[in-house]
């Protein structure tokens, strides 16, 4: 069916209000305007940041279509788009790369000024939305909204990937893998023989563990309140597992006792002020590096003992692994990337089950929860989603 220049009616998951179950709705997706790309989504991962958005921890405008870890095919492009063409395989980017703002022009960071996360307008760059449902305007999330069979994103929020990319799995390369792996490899620069602690063994924490192991860390302590995460974490490289709920002392004291001096590298991948402080306090007093990847609720603050700062350790935040070019067209051909993806055994859900997928994502090793758009057998969209 020729959809070029036309509004497409398809299925999408909508969060109508804070902390509600997602509901599957028929939505209208307008054609892309200048500088925009319309994508037929093939699969999307579920990241902790989607969970935060649905729960209101990252404040978004309601109603919105969640999702940012997407893999799909370009359906059509707006005027002036040059980096992708219809039929290209692409990933969506939660943090765009405009390549001209003060953040993009500095190699030390990647939090592009054109991002729509903190704060979020829920709208495209021209201040309008491309989605409607039952005549009502629906907001975008992070200008990606991948929980839809079709979505529209700015060209700067899309990256072309190799034609051989496995579209059922590659979506996790869009956020969780580069965030966690990059935090260890690019941002912390974990060194061979070093000791590490990872707070939170979900999607991001698992990818951090992979990065620490790949960097040659000799000891990786994994901390989580959900012990169901431990077997998988051990398989990925965690050498010691700690459940803070079972400890009689603060977890940072346990980490210090286990290592004698505190760890060389500590990572926080939960998004809570108290675990950020625990990560900091777990570090070696002189050269320890504490990396924060978790996103906290608005107005959340933490305080550190001022004396613990002047001894030399480093506190660092990191966005999407700290690298502007991690998501690039070579990734699917890169041997290391193939190894990383090989660790993923996806739990597949289909779009109608997205709400249960989000609930399940909170319970299991979440990198592996992927929602597939295709195989949604509903009469009105069967033409558009043939695989
Ligand atoms: N900085 C970035 O670029 C970036 C990118 C993606 C996600 N994030 C953020 O990273 C964080 C983690 O995301 P995720 O996808 O891994 O989420 P996740 O839900 O998969 O993992 C979180 C883990 O933390 C554990 N946990 C919760 N409370 C805990 C506590 N008090 N002590 C110990 N463990 C606890 C949970 O059991 C779970 O295993 C979120 O805050 C998310 O928004 C940041
Ligand atoms: Zn994410
Ligand atoms: Zn920019």
TrEMBL record:
GO cellular component terms given for this protein: cytosol
GO terms under biological process: retinoic acid metabolic process; retinol metabolic process
Keyword Zinc: yes
Domain named Alcohol dehydrogenase-like C-terminal: residues: 203-324
Known cofactor(s): Zn(2+)
Annotated Alcohol dehydrogenase-like N-terminal domain residues: 34-162
Molecular function per GO: all-trans-retinol dehydrogenase (NAD+) activity; zinc ion binding
Zinc-finger listed as a keyword: no
Domain of life: Eukaryota
Keywords: Metal-binding, NAD, Oxidoreductase, Zinc
Family as reported in the entry's similarity comment: Belongs to the zinc-containing alcohol dehydrogenase family.
Name of this protein: Enoyl reductase (ER) domain-containing protein
């Amino acid at each position: 069916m020729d959809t070029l220049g036309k509004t497409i009616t398809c299925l999408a998951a909508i969060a109508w209000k804070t902390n509600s179950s997602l509901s599957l709705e028929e939505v209208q997706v307008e054609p892309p305007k200048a500088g925009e790309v319309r994508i037929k989504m093939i699969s999307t991962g579920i990241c902790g940041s989607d969970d935060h958005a649905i729960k209101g921890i990252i404040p978004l405008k309601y109603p919105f279509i969640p999702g940012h870890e997407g893999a799909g095919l370009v359906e059509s492009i707006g005027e002036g788009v040059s980096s992708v063409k219809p039929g290209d395989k692409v990933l969506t980017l939660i943090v765009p790369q405009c390549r001209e703002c003060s953040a993009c022009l500095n190699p030390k960071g990647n939090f592009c000024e054109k991002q729509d996360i903190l704060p979020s307008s829920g709208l495209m760059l021209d201040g309008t939305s491309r989605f409607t449902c039952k005549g009502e305007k629906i907001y975008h999330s992070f200008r990606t909204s991948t929980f839809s069979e079709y979505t529209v994103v700015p060209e700067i929020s899309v990256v072309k990937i190799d034609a051989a990319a496995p579209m059922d799995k590659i979506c996790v390369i869009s956020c969780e893998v580069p965030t966690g792996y990059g935090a260890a490899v690019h941002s912390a620069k974990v060194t061979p023989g070093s000791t590490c602690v990872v707070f939170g063994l979900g999607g991001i924490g698992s990818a951090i563990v992979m990065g620490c192991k790949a960097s040659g860390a000799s000891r990786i302590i994994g901390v989580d309140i959900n012990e169901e995460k431990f077997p998988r974490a051990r398989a990925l490289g965690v050498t010691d597992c700690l459940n803070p709920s079972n400890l009689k002392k603060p977890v940072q004291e346990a980490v210090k006792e286990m290592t004698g001096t505190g760890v060389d590298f500590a990572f926080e991948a939960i998004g809570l002020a108290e675990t950020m402080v625990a990560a900091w306090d777990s570090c070696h007093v002189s050269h320890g590096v504490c990396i924060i990847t978790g996103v906290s609720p608005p107005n959340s603050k933490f305080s550190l003992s001022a004396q613990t700062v002047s001894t030399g350790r480093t506190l660092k935040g990191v966005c999407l692994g700290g690298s502007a070019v991690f998501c690039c067209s070579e990734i699917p051909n890169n041997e290391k990337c193939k190894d990383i993806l090989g660790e993923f055994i996806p739990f597949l859900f289909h779009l109608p089950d997205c709400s249960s997928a989000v609930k399940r994502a909170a319970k299991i090793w979440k990198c592996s929860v992927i929602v597939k758009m295709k195989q949604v057998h509903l009469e009105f969209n069967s033409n558009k989603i043939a695989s």
